[in-house]
Every structure is written in C-alpha cells, then in structure tokens.
C-alpha cells in the first residue's frame, strides 16, 4: 500500500521538529521514491483492469462474474485515489 501525501507530510513534520532542517533532503528523496512506486502501482493496476475487462467477456465456470466485477471496481477506485 502506498503512503499518502498526508502520511509523508506528517513524517516530515515530526522528523523536522525533532531534528531540524537537515532532514529536508531525505524527505525530498523519499517523496521521489514514493512517486516512482505510485507510478508503477498505477501501471500494474491499469494492466490488471485491461486483463479483467477481456476476461469479463469470456465464459468461465471456475470464477464467478461478481468477483471479476468487484476486482474491476476496486482497481478503478484505487486509481481514483480512494482507499
């Protein structure tokens, strides 16, 4: 699960209040890493959604269609920033 901007801001504020401004470069690096991870997560979720959409149109007895619909809804919600 990706860290939210609020989580990063809270961590930055806490570290800065205890240790001073020397922590700023570390949190800038942390934000850059988080952005890369979030980008990769989003790309993987988009790939999953495409695969599930194709799967939706095929008859399959082993997986209930509601499970596919729920997975698609969850992926879309994640891309929209909802938990």
Task: Explain what you see.
This protein is mostly helical. The chain has one domain. Helix content is 76%, strand content 0%. It contains 3 helices and no strands. The chain has helices at residues 5-19, 24-56, 65-79. The protein is elongated, with a radius of gyration of 19 Å. The protein starts with a helix and ends with a helix. The mean pLDDT is 78.
Gyration radius over CA: 19 Å
**DSSP strand tally:** 0
Low-confidence stretches: none
Sheet having the most strands: none
Share in β-strands: under 5%
Question: How much helix, percentage-wise, in residues?
Answer: over 70%
How many domain units? 1
What structural class do the secondary elements suggest?
Answer: mainly alpha
Shape: elongated
CA-CA gap between termini? 10 Å
H/E element sequence? HHH
Mean pLDDT: 78
Number of helices: 3
Secondary-structure map:
Elements: H1 5-19, H2 24-56, H3 65-79
In short:
The chain has three helices and no strands.
List keywords for this structure.
83 residues, mainly alpha, 76% helix
């Amino acid at each position: 699960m990706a860290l939210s901007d609020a989580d990063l801001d809270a961590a930055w504020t806490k570290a800065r209040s205890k240790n001073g401004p020397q922590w700023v470069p570390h949190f800038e690096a942390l934000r850059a890493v988080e952005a890369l991870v979030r980008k990769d997560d989003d790309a993987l979720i988009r790939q999953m959604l495409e695969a599930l959409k194709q799967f939706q149109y095929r008859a399959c007895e082993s997986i209930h269609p509601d499970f596919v619909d729920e997975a698609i809804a969850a992926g879309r919600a994640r891309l929209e920033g909802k938990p």
